[in-house]
Amino acid sequence: MRLITAFALSALLSAPALAQTAAPANPLRPAPKAAPAATPAAPAAAAPAAEAPKPKRARSEAQLANDNRMKACGAEWRANKDKLKAQGKTWRTYNVECRARMKAAGQ
Q: Measured between alpha carbons, how far is 107 from 104 in angstroms, rounded to an integer?
């Protein structure tokens, strides 16, 4: 009887200690990250005013010339699309050739 009482008493005393100890960490698995602390929301009146968008920088002369060549080559492609496709051209290959031709011509 003393043995059973001693066993029961030791089990009761060690149970809280067992509950408080955590299982050993797995060295192959990273430890879970703690949740970030909640921050109080700022009042709506204290929110900064929306900043005005920055004005776009003006396009350079070279960019404008390229834009004009692209538009002209696009118009040529649409006008002669069936004939160019029959020759095996695609828009990409035609566009490269057209822009190089127009640039060489000084347009």
A: 8
- H or E element in which residue 16 lies: helix 2-20
CA pair distance 82, 94, nearest whole angstrom = 13
Could you report the per-residue pLDDT of 60-106, keeping only the tens digit for each? Answer: 999 999 999 999 999 999 999 999 999 999 999 999 999 999 999 98
| Rounded distance between C-alpha atoms, residue 63 and residue 94, angstroms | 20
Q: How far is CA 60 from CA 19, 35, 39, 64, 66, in A?
A: 72, 50, 47, 6, 10
**Ranges of each domain in the chain:** 62-104
Exposure string for 86-98, b = 16+ CB within 10 A, e = fewer: eeebeeeebbeeb
Alpha-carbon distance of 61 to 39, in angstroms, equals 51
Q: Are 103 and 68 in contact (CB under 8 A)?
A: no
Separation CA 96–CA 99 (nearest Å): 5
